[in-house]
Amino acid sequence: MLHIEFNSALLFHRKPTNPHQISRIQLSSNGWRQKNQKTVEEFKTMVISSNPLAPELQISSHQQPYPSIPFSTNPNNVILPINRRHLLASLSVAITPFFTSQPPDAGARGLFQMPPARLTNRYYLVRAGESEFESMGIINTNPVAKTSVDSGLSERGKKQTVRAAFELKAMKACEGSCWIWPSITQRAYQAAEIIASVNGVTRSFIVPEYSFLDARGLGAFEGKNLESVSEVYASDSISPSIKPPPINDGTPNESVEDVFVRVTQLMSILETQYSGDTVIIVSPDSDNLTVLQAGLVGLDFRRHRDLSFSPGEVRFVDINSIPTYKQPASAVYKCLNPPSCR
């Protein structure tokens, strides 16, 4: 119910601006009250007649001055100036019906968190086939070159991707319809086109992702032999916050936690944009997918390497989506507050 309460002795009072105005507002005590009582009644009538909440609207007034504010007159009944702050303090308005809280919708989706309580979509994780750089045994994670032809699929990588596309078809991933979200990295987008072709998906259902699915930046390891990446994973097993050494050529040096932030942002978008759909995530490397899968099922990020994806590998996301041969030896593997798994 809307309740408006005010002090009639203060509401219609204005502070004189010069001495000459004082004489114009001299009123006897009874005459002043009668005049303002009439104004109060007119105000009530106006509010009730124009407000749809009129049956629930109550307006009350006090004929006596507000008790906490001294109100004095001189012998000639001249009303003394009142501070504006006192005037505001004399008005009390409670508009509770406009802010009545509603019970939350049981189906409402809030901020996406890892591990999620539930997923509104079906997800398939796919690592693109071998790239040209990988075929040469060279680490290439600089995003500047991600759309270069040299970052595309090798001949072997194309065959691996075709096998992945038919595997998705056998899993009926795109039965009905599906969305394909590849990284804009050349090899990942090429893989998405192959998957779409085999599964009868039109290009309008391919949604390129421009940053959240970039290959993990390995900093100073850029351009080195692929075998040297084992040093990065050795650091990951100590703490997910350790970054590779930096480099000044524009290649990021990302920790596991950095990758986790990116893939969580991606999942937040997907869970908000779609509902009840099938989404195929195509990554240019393994680390995006291992960190994402670890986050989804609540696994310790220090062991994300145990979930590694080989080029062209496909996995359906559920609590049992970790292949048996990739199960960790230790049973102490849960991470209830990712990425804080130290």
From TrEMBL:
Superkingdom, taxonomy of origin: Eukaryota
Record Pfam families: His_Phos_1
PANTHER family hit by this protein: PHOSPHOGLYCERATE MUTASE FAMILY PROTEIN
Protein name, as recorded: Phosphoglycerate mutase family protein
Organism: Vitis rotundifolia
Lineage of source species: Eukaryota, Viridiplantae, Streptophyta, Embryophyta, Tracheophyta
